[in-house]
Structure formats: C-alpha cells, structure tokens
Input
Amino acid sequence: MHRLARLAAVLTVCCLPAACSLFGDDEEADAAAAEAEATRVLPQPVDTVVGVEIGRTASGFVITAYGIAPGAGFGVPQLTPRRQGRPAPDGFIEYDFRAIPPDPNFEMPRGSETVRRLRADRLVSERVFSAAAGIRIFALRNARAVRF
Output
C-alpha cells in the first residue's frame, strides 16, 4: 500500500505543474491532437514504376521497386499492400508504390528524372509468396508485374 501512495504522489507532482490530465479532459491537448492529425501528410502514388526485383532472404523474400516521383523532394518510399496482402483473384499480390510529398510551403522544382528516382523495399514471408502467382506494383501512370 505504501508503494501505491508514493506512486500517486509522484503522479500528482508530475502532472500538476504542467496542468495535464490523467483522464484526457484537457481541451488544449485534444485541440493539438486534432490539428496534428489534420496536418499529417499522407503518402501519394509515385508517377511511374520503372523496375521491380525480387530477392531471397533468410526468412523469405524482398521486393524492390524503382520508380519516379511526381516531383523533387518526395521521400519515405513504400510499398503498401492491397487487400491486406491477400492475393487478387488472378493470384497476384498487389502493392501501391507511394511516397511522402515535400512540405507544400517549400517551392520544390519538378526536377530531372534522376532527382525524382525512388526505391522501396518490402520484406515478404515465404508463406505469402508460395501461395501467389506473382506480384504487381501500381503507380499513378503504370504498373509492373513479375510472374513466379
């Protein structure tokens, strides 16, 4: 019981100076969280997929996709699975090739194709690959497929 009393005292001392609430009633914190969610930048499709590779790892496979972003400054490229990673009716596992756009407050040039080149990697288990006919990567203007 003595430990619980000490813990309550520590929590009280820690929270009172900052005017925080243990129960989430702080309107300022709620407003800040809503603003952060509203300004969260979502990944956008890359412009085109220019290549796809599949490599073997100790625990399965790695998919590597190369693409061209719509403009300079895109980052954090990623392959996002469609259908929660389940194969499409034709047996292909499908991914969207996306990247985070640059801050709109910065005027980024379109840039050359070399500047806009991106690479995304995704680890996939052997179990998932064994049940698939191939993989398909989608971009804004095209798609690439690799049949197994």
